[in-house]
Amino acid sequence: MNNSELVTNGESRVHYGDLVVSEDMRSDFLYSDEAKEGMEKKIPYYIESLSENSQTAFKSDMSIFIQWCKKNSYCALPVNPIVLRRFMYEESNEKAPTTIERRLSTICKLHQVIGIKSPRSEPEISSAMKNIWEISEHEIRQAQPFRMEKLNLLPSVIDRRKIRDVRDIAITLLAYSTLLRRSEMARIKIEDLDMESGMDGTVKVGKIKSAKGTREVHYAYISPVAMIWIKEWIRISGAENGILFRTVNKWNSAGRNGISGCAIAESINRMGRLINVELNFTGHSTRVGAAQDLVANGIETTKAMQAGRWKDTKTFLRYSARLNASEGGMSEMFKKNNG
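Below the sequence we write its predicted structure tokens.
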């Protein structure tokens, strides 16, 4: 299998070869001498020339990339295309393709301003970016939507005596209500929950960039039914603080360790299979299902995008593309004439 071949394995994104960086690419130096001088003398002036919003984005992307190189002992400037490709793929596990595009542009601009060759034209980089977009499209197309009509069946199919069932229904209902990705779900702490506002609540999901370029705390909505099961999970797990969703052992007890994003996806799929063994949900299914239900219920696009934290209308519409076809004008006409 060559390095550019894309392989997807259920919920895991696997890029065999692409994640392999030979040891001889490790470096004791973060910058070459030329790049170090450029970082000190040229980059500050370039940043000052940008608008306030662009400055914030540029400095954030630059810092993330440089810290990643430092952590992994790679030279950041100039960066080896294979190293940059690995950075892009690792970032794509949690970030949207548009964010990866922006970070790539920042890295290339760093090279250009300093006066060293930009990696933009390297074949490894163009193929990686193409693959990242393909992965994103593939996940959305492949994810069977977990919509409200099926979610409403869950309380009748689970066994409340099994702590794993309680945990997994709480995971599934919270993922749908908040439209959080599996990696975001795995990071939620009990302290992030606001459970004092009545039947429903909110969860703090981290900081996002506002229209003004500042980083602001964002909160996602928790539905009343999701809140019921979250409280029940907290009660029977005995957890008082720290990571919300934890391991469950074979003795029907909650552990102390948090579960991974992959385990979040497995929990959602397991709930689907309790409804129907032929259902095959992924960690993206609740997000896709919630997006489709928002559209089907006539929620304004701006409000729907805010709920799912989408910044680009085209990205949001990809989630509802299949719904628009199955519930569009032609579908309605044939149902009326054949129903």
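The chain has two domains: 7-141, 144-338.
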